[in-house]
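Predict the assembly for these four chains.
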Amino acid sequence: MKDVAEHAGVTLSTVSYVLNDSGPVSESRRARILDAIRVLKYTPNESARRLRKKAASTIGLVLPDLTNQFFALVAEGVELAAAEGEALVMLCAPEAINRPIQHYTRLLRGQSLDGIIYLPGGAGMALSLSLELAEAGPVVMVDERVRGFDVPTVVADSRSGAREVATHVLAQGHRRLAIIGGPQALWTSEQRLSGYREAIAAHGLHPDAVPVLEGNHREGSGAAIAARLLAAPPDERPTALLCANDLMAFGVLDYCQSAGLRVPQDVSVTGFDDIPVARLTSPGLTTVRQPAHAMGYEAAKLLFELIRTPASAPPPQPPVFTTEVQVRGSVGPAPG
Amino acid sequence: MKDVAEHAGVTLSTVSYVLNDSGPVSESRRARILDAIRVLKYTPNESARRLRKKAASTIGLVLPDLTNQFFALVAEGVELAAAEGEALVMLCAPEAINRPIQHYTRLLRGQSLDGIIYLPGGAGMALSLSLELAEAGPVVMVDERVRGFDVPTVVADSRSGAREVATHVLAQGHRRLAIIGGPQALWTSEQRLSGYREAIAAHGLHPDAVPVLEGNHREGSGAAIAARLLAAPPDERPTALLCANDLMAFGVLDYCQSAGLRVPQDVSVTGFDDIPVARLTSPGLTTVRQPAHAMGYEAAKLLFELIRTPASAPPPQPPVFTTEVQVRGSVGPAPG
DNA sequence: TTGTAGGCGTTATCAG
DNA sequence: CTGATAACGCCTACAA
């Protein structure tokens, strides 16, 4: 920068002015400076810049893992919004590195990030951790809520999505259902469960008649639970399995195929999320669409708004996205 | 930090010494300082730190998009290696934000990153762009090569993988093949194509007898090309489609299903990458496994090594991963 | 073993 | 409109 100043025959301050246009500069000088910058291929040193201002033009993105396409889509949404705000994204995937979130809270705190997008999902959703994260900057949550952690949050209406998909299944005549839920501690798990139960109650079934098994949102757990559930004789085992996310539903599909069970003739299956590959299984997976990309995008937008908002002003109001059942082949009429 | 020093009754340098253990400090003082740090919940300001040293403990990761699970897996591998090296990862997904890489080269240059992992894939694989990226720090490439851009590169042996899967298809008696390739400009596209052709030549077929259509590595292009290819009458159209990645193969599968073509009875399909969901289509996709996670991990390790290596020393030797055909249901004997 | 002082590249506050 | 100058928070010779 000093070089630029010399090359243009001005002082550092003037250069700084044109860089941030934070001061009045005569056209002739401005042109000379811009020129010098190009000639010398000068790039401002961001580290110095953040030291001085307290902003980093960088936001943190904390999510469980990237291999679940749902999360990947959220990440792309965040990335897009960040790009529009000329910011960069720090990726933190605690489960991918098999360490507690603390690993990141420690690293992130010093970065003077502008803010953080937090999508809890695995084991690390405890309140204390959230608070710790919050010390690294303003936080916006996506897809999940943490009780007692009161930050702007972008979610979809899981509950009514679950209700609708369960209603669809019940309308096909199924009466012996089973639910493969997500980790109990998660808000979404609870929401989806209530949704399922509302539908079940509305059809006059006793909630206790529907077993709920806890999965971990990954394929393997779907397959394992299906194996347990479907081992019973045909006239006792469930005729429909409601899964709290698509990955577990894939696991179920996979198990059924290897066990020689036909979907949907022998057993119907539903998922949740509607990740792109859900269309591609065969039969296609009946599931509940959540606008993952839009959710990530809005969350990041919200974060930027939050950053700009003076602390006194009312916090921006986050939207609640609607969900939508996608009917495909994996649900059919109840057998018998 | 000043507060810490006061609280512990020492000077700033002493605190700095214990922080980086870069100087001898008496046990008693060290303990007092550590204590003060804990009490005050002090976190070093990374911005200041990088300004002083020239390292950021941060690496950049540039890849086309995250929704392709292959890339997501690479990203997780990188993330893991970064965590082991106590570094953070800056995520850059140019296609997700629908802008040229330049958007990032500009942003990255000022960050004084320790280095960059670069996985070209979409439109942005030109040499000039790579060089521009290299100005932001040492670069390691994964999965692709760019001619004339000579940096350490981690790849898998696409060519022999392609050869083997084609051989498998030919061994099933298929003679009317078609290839759905990736973007021509990519090194992997070229490699896979040569692999396919080697196998084809080895079976005495004339290479020109096998049409090659160029896709863009996404589902949609697979479906579109399949539609064109399979419109011909049954005894003229190809009996097997070799796709340069799994996503395009999914597109083909999808098209076949909607067009009422049975896989593999009417047409056989192969993919490339073996992303986790490839097991879940039905029939399962016969494809070529690339160790995506390991490749990302090794690339990041390599980058760290490169950073440590004095410029004079010989650059570390990158491994070439082997590929492996995964035989599943999407390939069957040739009809007739 | 500990303290002092200079500077990393910017921005912001002043006075000209 | 422009130019000096003091921080920002940390590291590292060097001196004590």
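Chain B has twelve helices and twelve strands. Residues 10-14, 17, 23-26, 29, 48, 50-54 of chain B lie near DNA strand C (CB under 10 Å from a C1').
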